[in-house]
C-alpha cells in the first residue's frame, strides 16, 4: 500500500495530501519498528528516497529557520550578559567610591581650614613686621641712650679733670 501511495504521488505531482502520505508512511515505518522484526521486507528504494525527500523538504526549512533563530537568540543573550556584566562592574565601582556629597563637604571643610590658615599667616606676618620695627626702634633708642651716656660720662670726666686742682706755676 505504501508503494501505491508513492506511485500515486509521482503521477499527481506535489499536492497538499503529500504531507499526509509522508506522515502515514512514517507512522507505518514507526509501527513496523515497534513491532517484532519482520524478515524479508521489500521496500522500494525510490519510495524511501521520495519519502525522505518529502520529509526533509517539509521540515528542514522550519528546522533551519529555528536553528538560525536560536543562534541569534544565543548571540543576543551573550551580548546581554556581557552588557549586564559591564553594568554590574560600573555599579560596583560607583558603590566603591565614597558618597560625592560627603567628598564635597569634606573638600569645603579643608578649603575653609586653608583660608583660616592663610589669614592667620597674614596676621602673624603683620605682627612680626611690627615687632621687627619696634625691635629696631628699641635698638636704635638703646644705642642712642648708650651714646648719650658715653658722651655724658666723657663730659663728666672732662669736667672732673678741669675741676681737679692744678698746681699753680710759680714764677
Automatic annotation (TrEMBL):
Pfam families: Snapin_Pallidin. Keywords: Cytoplasm. Its main location: cytoplasm. One of its GO terms (cellular component) is transport vesicle. Residues 142-171 are annotated as: Disordered. InterPro entries: BLOC-1_pallidin (IPR017242), Snapin/Pallidin/Snn1 (IPR028119). Belongs to the BLOC1S6 family. It is found in: Cytoplasm. This is Biogenesis of lysosome-related organelles complex 1 subunit 6. The keyword Cytoplasm applies. It comes from Scophthalmus maximus. Coiled coil: none annotated.
